[in-house]
Amino acid sequence: MRGTALSSANAMQAVDYITISLSSKGEIASWDAAAEALTGFRAQDVMGGDIEHLVAVPTPQSHRALAALRAGFAAKFGALIRCKDGGLVAVEIEAKARGDAPGAISLRDLTAERLASGASRHAGERLKLALGAAAIGAYEIDLLTQRYQLDGRASAIWGRDPTDSICFSMLADQVLDEDRPAAEGALAAASDPAGDGSYATEFRIRRHGDGVLRWLSLRGRTFFENGQPVSRIGVMLDVTQNRRLEEDNAHLAAIVGTTGDAIYSLTLDGAVRSWNPAAERMFGVSSREMIGKAETALIPPELQSEAEALFEAAKAGDIVRRETKRLRRDGSSFDVLLSIAPMRGRNGDAAAISVLARDISDEKRVLAQLEQANARMAQQTAELDAVFEALNVPVTVFNRDGAIARTNAAARAVWGVTPDMPQPLPFGDVAAQLSVRNSAGETIDPAALAARRALAGESVGPQHYQITSPSGLKHDFETAELPLIVDGAITGAVAVWHDVTEARRRDDQASILLRELSHRSKNLLSVIESILRQSAKGSVSKDDFVARFSDRLRALAHSHDLLAKTNSLSVSMTDLIFSQVGHHWEPGQRRIMLSGLGVRLKPDAAQMIGMALHELSTNAAKYGALSNAIGRVSIGWRVDHEAEAEPMFVLNWVERGGPPVQAPERAGFGTTVIQRVAGQSLRGTASLIYPEEGVSWTLRAPRSSVIDTAQQDAPRAERIRSPALEKLQTLWTNLYRDGKLPRLDELSLDDIEPQDHVIVADVDNAINPPAVRFVSVGKALVDRMGLRRECQDIEVSETEILGAEDGAYRRCIRSGRPAYEYAYFNLTQGRSFFFERLLLPLSDDGQRVSRIIGMASFDDGVSAGAN
């Protein structure tokens, strides 16, 4: 604007005062060249006019002042007067009192003064803004009074109230003692008039009020009068954060410089911008060679794309860790673990990329060796665990507190625990289930097995115990206990129990055999006498008698030969029976009936069972069913799969038709063999009862103690192998629903082939035990057994057609479920065979068994109705 230009021009010309005069009427009477230069108005433009017309912005103050001026009174006021070009000029109008008539008036141009004042004010404001933006505090010091004046920010730095009156000693006390000498030295140097008075220093203070430690930076100047310092002004800045950053940076620089990991940074274009000493050692390339260049020469060609992907991921803000390979100067590759991360700028975006590379070649090599060692150790551990578990010697490991920490399978069988039970097991909880006897046969506290002496550091030699496990099995053990010592400290104990049950049993058996030999020698004459008597009966001539007598003597000799071979060979159950009972067989008669599985017996079992059968047959010949002409003996054996612990071998000897039976008044050696020895030697039980109709003996022993499962007289001895039997069972199964037994009329007998292989029997439940009446027996069975058949009446006893009184028919009736048996059947000495038999229960009301339908398949391929 022109007004502004005029004001500047006037200021340049240093026009201070302009004098004009007013008439008695208050009109402008004179207007000189200076007034014209200031306003642009010429004299003819303003002469005779009212001065108030020149005031651009009238105010109440200007009205009062002009009124006083026209009346001849003194007046002084500031106003903006209008210039000819429309601009404004700031002036001060002043008139002195001259009575009642106006006179000379002076106008002082205030433009330069206002400009100077405005510039000073603006500069002050700019300084305040700058200090505020930089968090800088300002201060002034009157050195004569030692009084300090702090602005708000400086007061906050020191922890002082801005309104407080601050003296030197108050602030000096806040400076740390170790920093005070340097600070005072800098201020003292600034007080020397020979210098320019400037100073700069940094020191630590304890902020007033909370005692927080802060670093302070002071910059200022001392002012002098007559060669003496009189005041100081300056600024201060809290540089605590900067100091911490410097320390952190120094620490980081030390780490980067001394670490064994290569640390370098890349620009966003991929050029190296820093390269630490470890990178020089690792890659064999100096920082001078690398800075400003790409790292591609250090990346295997096949991994370039991977490196680019990692670089781009870091640029996008991801932190990446990757095991990969890099190249040394000589071209050799090595394994590295890369950690790549963005270095962010103030806006949070990636400004550069940092890379940490760790050479893991040695680590991977050691790790591979460690993995191989662990694999070998795992294999050895697995082998030792397998050996430990497979040992048939019970081994128990105790921890330091006496709890059971580990057991093998043999030990668990004794303790009565399972592999899935949590360990360690409190010894008291487990031992409470055992019954323990010492070598004298006395019952003792199971705590004797707790390895206490071994846990105390003592090696305990063999001790004998008889232990009855929770399952009821008895074992004789010789135990040894040793402490487990690691680094000289006892960490537990191990107890090894050698099972001497079999050895003791063999010793007992040897003793029994010696007694048996003596007993048999005494009985031999009785047996021969019985053979002689039975041979004499019914002999029609001397030659006939000699033949019968010779055959029986040879059978007796064969039984002795068979027993002599059982030391190393398994024995067929039927062969064993024939060896002991065969000399009592009468050709053409059905006095001895056999029915059972086609199995072979272990040597020990054959020996014990053979002795029992010998005693039973001897007693039967002397006093029982074989002592007359009409008595019968049924021998049946089977495997009970429904036993709780394990499948049980069951052998029955039942006599009928002999003289009335009475229990003996005393038990001789033979009775002892039958009742006790046979059962105990096979880890089972034997019962001998004397009902009036005939002696009954039952042996129950674990199948594993009796049957040689590797040798069976026929394959699949415990599951169906005949297609015809499988088809019959499928028909029955399809009709058996919701626990209801099917009826006979629901079975489509036309689908059962061949028809003449089927047997149907009615069950009479009116008597106990229920009786079986055979309604229909297939022609094949009749022909095979040589029975006499007239229409549907079968001339054969229930015992004969069942094969044994406790056979499949009885089981079918009792359980209401199918009964299957792979059995041996013998009618006479020259007529015997193996067969499969399947019996199925039927019912009229769906609940009680009222009929049985069955079928049999013989080993020679001929199928017949089940017997």
Automatic annotation (TrEMBL):
Coiled coil feature spans: 353-390
SMART domains registered for this protein in UniProt: HWE_HK, PAC, PAS
Catalytic activity line of the entry: ATP + protein L-histidine = ADP + protein N-phospho-L-histidine
CDD domains xref list: PAS (cd00130)
Keywords, comma-separated and alphabetical: ATP-binding, Chromophore, Coiled coil, Flavoprotein, FMN, Kinase, Nucleotide-binding, Phosphoprotein, Photoreceptor protein, Receptor, Repeat, Sensory transduction, Transferase, Virulence
UniProt-listed InterPro entries: HATPase_C_sf (IPR036890), PAC (IPR001610), PAS (IPR000014), PAS-assoc_C (IPR000700), PAS-like_dom_sf (IPR035965), PAS_4 (IPR013656), PAS_fold (IPR013767), PAS_fold_3 (IPR013655)
Top enzyme class: transferase
Residue ranges of domain PAS in the record: 11-48, 248-318
Domain PAC span(s) in chain numbering: 199-251, 320-372
Transmembrane segments: none
Gene Ontology molecular function: ATP binding; photoreceptor activity; protein histidine kinase activity
EC identifiers of the protein: 2.7.13.3
GO biological process, one term: regulation of DNA-templated transcription
Pfam family, any one: PAS_3
Protein name per UniProt: Blue-light-activated histidine kinase
Source organism per UniProt: Methylocella silvestris (strain DSM 15510 / CIP 108128 / LMG 27833 / NCIMB 13906 / BL2)
